[in-house]
C-alpha cells in the first residue's frame, strides 16, 4: 500500500472510532507486527487526557513489557511519560489502583474479575494480557530429602502425584505453600495442580500469602514448604540450592494468562485516549519482547538495580528458554522456549491469529468456574449475570481498535475451547458450558455439591 493511501486509511479509522478527539497526528516509527515484520507508521491517538502516568508492578519477570516499553521508547512514542512504582505484593497494586495513586499496573489476571464480583471493591478492568505462562512451583530441600524430585524425574504426572500425595499426608499438620496473593493466578493454578493429584487445597495444604521478595527467605528458614510464583524467585532458590522446581505453570495449563494491564474502571472512562495509547505502547513492547535475538539484552535490562535488582543467572533461564529444575544434585536444564510468551510464539496451543495480548473472555469464564469451585469471593454458584460481569471486566473495544490500528489480526471469536491436552488432568474446557465443567470436578469446596 502506498504511503498516502495508508495515511488516509489510518485517518479514516480514527475519525470514526469512539475516541471523540481531534487533531490526529501520524508519527513515523518502526514497530513489530505479530510476524515481527516492520511497520512503517504507527498512529498517535489524538489529544491525551494525561501524559504523565504512574504504573505499578511487583518485581518479577511479569513486568518485562512495561520495563521494555520504558527502555525502548515505546511509551514516549505515544506521548507518554511514565514513572514506575515498585510494590511488594499484588494486594498493594490493588490498593494503588483503588486509591488513584496508580494510573495502571501489571496485575495478576484474576484481580480485575475479583474486583467486579466483590460489591465492596473498586471496579478494576483488564485492558490487555501481558504474558502467558511464566510461573513455577518451588519446593524446599526438605522435600528433596523427603523423596520428592522434579516432575521431570517421573514417568508421568500420575507417578509424581502418587509420590507427592503420600509425602503431603505424612505431615501432622498441613504444610504451607506460599503464593503472592489470593488474587494471583498462582493461587488458582496451585489449587488446580494439588486437586489434580487428589490433594485437598483447603484441608491438606495451607496456602499462605507472602511477598515474592520474601519467599526464598521463608523457604530457607523452614517457615514454608514451597512457593508458587514467577521468576526470578524460582531460579534464585535453585542457584542457592535452597530448593528445586517441582513443576511449572505451563504444565498445569498450557497457555494460561498470567499478568494483565489493569486500570480502574473510572480511570479508563476518564482517560479513553490515554488508555488506547498505553495499550498501543505495550503491544509494541510485547512484540519486541518475543523477538528471540532481543531476549539476552532484555535480561540485562531487567537485572539492573532499578528494576529487578538481581543476577542474570536468576533471569536468563525463564527468558532464554533453558530452564534449570535443580542444582541440589546436578544442573538439570530443560528446553522450554515457551516458558514466557509476551505476544506470539507458535505452539501447540497458540496459532495465528490468536495471540497473547487479546483479552479472551473464555479465560474469564474459566476463572469464574474456579472461583465457584473454591468459593472464592463468596461465590458458591456460577453467576447468572456472568456475561455482564465479563463485559465490564474486559472492555474488548479498546483493545480491538488499537490492534486494528497496528495491523494486528484479531481472533475470530472472544471465546475459545481449551483442549484436554492443555491441562495437567487432561480435562477439556468448553466456555459455553461452565456449570457442566464445574460439575465434573469431584474435589472442590462444599463437595459433593452439584450445581445447576
Automatic annotation (TrEMBL):
GO terms for cellular component: plasma membrane. Its main location: membrane. The keyword Signal applies. Coiled coil: none annotated. Keywords: Cell inner membrane, Cell membrane, Ion transport, Membrane, Signal, Transport. Gene3D superfamilies: Periplasmic binding protein-like II (3.40.190.10). It is found in: Cell inner membrane. One of its GO terms (biological process) is monoatomic ion transport. The keyword Transport applies. Residues 1-27 form the signal peptide. InterPro entries: NrtA/CpmA_ABC-bd_dom. It comes from the Bacteria. PANTHER family: ALIPHATIC SULFONATES-BINDING PROTEIN-RELATED (PTHR30024), BLL4572 PROTEIN (PTHR30024:SF43). This is Nitrate transporter, putative. It comes from Gloeothece verrucosa (strain PCC 7822). The lineage of its organism: Bacteria, Bacillati, Cyanobacteriota, Cyanophyceae, Oscillatoriophycideae.
Amino acid at each position: 500500500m502506498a504511503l498516502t493511501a495508508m495515511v488516509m486509511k489510518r485517518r479514516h479509522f480514527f475519525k470514526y472510532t469512539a475516541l471523540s478527539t481531534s487533531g490526529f497526528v501520524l508519527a513515523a516509527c518502526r514497530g513489530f507486527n505479530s510476524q515481527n515484520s516492520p511497520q512503517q507508521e504507527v498512529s498517535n491517538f489524538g489529544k491525551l487526557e494525561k501524559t504523565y502516568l504512574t504504573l505499578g508492578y511487583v518485581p518479577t519477570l511479569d513486568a518485562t513489557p512495561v520495563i521494555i516499553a520504558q527502555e525502548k521508547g515505546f511509551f514516549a512514542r505515544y506521548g507518554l511519560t511514565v514513572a514506575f512504582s515498585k510494590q511488594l505484593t499484588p494486594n498493594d497494586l490493588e490498593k494503588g489502583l483503588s486509591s488513584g495513586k496508580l494510573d495502571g499496573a501489571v496485575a495478576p489476571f484474576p484481580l480485575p474479575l475479583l474486583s467486579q464480583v466483590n460489591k465492596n471493591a473498586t471496579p478494576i478492568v483488564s485492558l490487555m494480557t501481558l504474558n502467558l505462562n511464566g510461573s513455577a512451583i518451588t519446593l524446599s530441600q526438605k522435600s528433596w530429602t523427603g523423596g520428592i524430585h522434579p516432575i521431570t524425574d517421573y514417568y508421568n504426572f500420575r507417578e509424581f502425584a502418587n509420590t507427592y500425595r503420600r509425602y503431603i499426608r505424612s505431615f501432622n499438620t498441613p504444610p504451607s505453600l506460599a503464593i503472592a496473593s489470593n488474587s494471583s493466578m498462582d493461587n488458582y493454578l496451585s489449587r488446580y495442580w494439588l486437586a489434580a493429584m487428589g490433594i485437598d487445597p483447603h484441608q491438606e495444604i495451607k496456602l499462605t500469602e507472602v511477598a515474592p521478595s520474601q519467599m526464598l527467605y521463608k523457604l530457607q528458614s523452614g517457615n514454608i514448604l514451597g512457593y508458587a510464583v514467577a521468576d526470578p524467585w524460582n531460579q534464585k532458590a535453585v542457584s542457592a540450592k535452597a530448593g528445586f522446581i517441582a513443576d511449572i505453570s505451563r504444565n498445569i495449563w498450557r497457555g494460561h494468562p498470567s499478568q494483565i494491564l489493569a486500570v480502574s474502571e473510572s480511570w479508563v472512562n476518564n482517560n479513553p485516549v490515554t488508555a488506547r495509547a498505553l495499550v498501543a505502547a505495550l503491544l509494541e513492547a510485547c512484540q519486541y519482547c518475543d523477538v528471540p535475538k532481543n531476549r539476552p539484552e532484555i535480561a540485562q535490562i531487567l537485572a539492573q538495580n532499578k528494576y529487578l535488582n538481581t543476577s542474570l543467572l536468576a533471569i536468563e533461564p525463564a527468558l532464554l528458554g533453558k530452564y534449570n529444575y535443580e542444582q541440589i544434585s546436578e544442573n538439570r536444564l530443560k528446553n522450554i522456549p515457551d516458558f514466557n510468551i509476551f505476544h506470539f510464539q507458535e505452539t501447540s496451543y497458540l496459532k495465528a491469529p490468536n495471540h497473547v495480548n487479546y483479552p479472551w473472555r473464555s479465560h474469564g469464564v474459566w476463572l469464574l468456574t474456579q472461583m465457584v469451585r473454591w468459593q472464592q469471593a463468596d461465590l458458591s454458584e456460577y453467576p447468572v449475570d456472568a456475561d455482564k460481569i465479563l463485559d465490564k471486566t474486559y472492555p474488548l473495544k479498546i483493545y480491538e481498535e488499537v490492534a486494528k490500528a497496528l495491523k494486528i489480526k484479531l481472533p475470530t471469536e472472544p471465546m475459545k475451547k481449551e483442549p484436554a491436552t492443555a491441562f495437567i488432568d487432561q480435562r477439556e474446557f468448553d466456555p459455553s458450558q461452565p456449570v457442566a465443567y464445574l460439575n465434573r470436578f469431584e474435589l472442590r469446596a462444599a463437595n459433593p455439591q452439584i450445581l445447576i
